[in-house]
Amino acid sequence: MTGAAPARRTRRHDPHRRDRLIDAALAVIAEHGVAGTTHREIARAADVPLGSMTYHFDGLDDILAEAFTRHTESIARVFDERLTAARTRDEAVEAVVTLVADDLLSPGHDLILTVELYVAAARNPRLKAVTQAWMQRSRDALVRHFDPTTAREVDALIEGLTLHSALSTDPMTPAQIRHAIERYLR
Amino acid sequence: MTGAAPARRTRRHDPHRRDRLIDAALAVIAEHGVAGTTHREIARAADVPLGSMTYHFDGLDDILAEAFTRHTESIARVFDERLTAARTRDEAVEAVVTLVADDLLSPGHDLILTVELYVAAARNPRLKAVTQAWMQRSRDALVRHFDPTTAREVDALIEGLTLHSALSTDPMTPAQIRHAIERYLR
DNA sequence: ATTACATGTGTACGCTCGTACGCATGAGCA
DNA sequence: TGCTCATGCGTACGAGCGTACACATGTAAT
């Protein structure tokens, strides 16, 4: 006896299960942190039996790597597109401001995921690679409009502004973000 | 039988044990992360029996809070002193540069502890209070020499610079740090 | 010297975890 | 139709965890 019969679903044939599991993993990380992310928690979030985790992934590290890869790539893509579209330096500055103030700090965007990635990457080589690929990509995008030194510095500034806002009870307003970036770039 | 007799120390009467445990906790956090920090790991690091943890602390949260409080206060103290000693704005800029380039980024300084604190604080109210007290204190120190907007912005910049350096395989040099800060403040 | 109590120590309990693995099942192909 | 195997499912196992708690011991007050 395993307890009350668990609502016998007959959910065979679930083609995008792997994808759904990766999304569920991101949701769990955002809610409970990497430390609170377990096979069981992800399975519960995706409404899938525990045994399914072993089948689709090689282990927890595997899931984390796939989840964070998806997360960073979706950010990097937007970053790339906006900066590629910019034609002048002023447009590039505007693109950066918009990205940070409107996208990274928008309520729907789970800023905490980024910090979680950083910490996890400190001790997980695979996640470190994910982090670095991402940093490289955003710096490459910046270098198209700014000299390498400026690109690196503004990259760090963006990091600090978002992190600061993510953790403060009194987050910076979009106007303050704009002021800080423009002060640096104009 | 518990296994090989564990080197019968007679270590009774250990007056600063609590202090040593807090230091050991910081060492364990730096090495294994908050997620890998357990009573047993700290006890091992301090060479103390497991039972001692229960006696000296109310739980793991209690230890973490005390450890991070010690960590942030030791940084804040230096920050305060240096900025209080500065008499002119130029001296204040110099103090900030030195703090970041020489202290925060020095090899002995465990930068990763800061990031660990941030992540842990996101889900632990007590640690959130520790983080905010620290941020407030460093901003107060900056406000003695810079206007509030500048103080807040440079605070974020420092955050980004140190974080960036902590995670990159190609960390910024002290000269690059100096360049970034001076560009912003002069 | 006796006592009281703060401190130190060892161990046990119940829990959750990652992972392995045997069995079930149904989709796609011959 | 019948076969086959990728996929799905349930459960079990051993390990490590936080915590509680009974007992030991040394200090300091009387």
Record the SSE blueprint.
The structure is a homodimer of 186-residue chains.
Chain A lengths: L16 H16 L6 H8 L4 H6 L3 H26 L3 H16 L6 H12 L2 H19 L4 H20 L6 H12 L1
Helix pairs in contact in A: 1-2, 1-4, 4-5, 4-7, 5-9, 6-7, 7-8, 8-9
The structure holds a DNA duplex (30 and 30 nucleotides).
Protein name (chains A, B): TetR family transcriptional regulator
Pfam families (chains A, B): TetR_C_31, TetR_N
GO molecular function (chains A, B): DNA-binding transcription factor activity; transcription cis-regulatory region binding
Task: Give a verbal description of the structure.
Two copies of one chain form a homodimer. Chain A has 186 residues and is mainly α. Chain A has one domain: Orthogonal Bundle (Tetracycline Repressor, domain 2). Helices cover 73% and strands 0% of the residues of chain A. Chain A has nine helices and no strands. Chain A has helices at 17-32, 39-46, 51-56, 60-85, 89-104, 111-122, 125-143, 148-167, 174-185. The first copy, chain A, is elongated and about 55 Å long. The structure holds a DNA duplex (30 and 30 nucleotides).
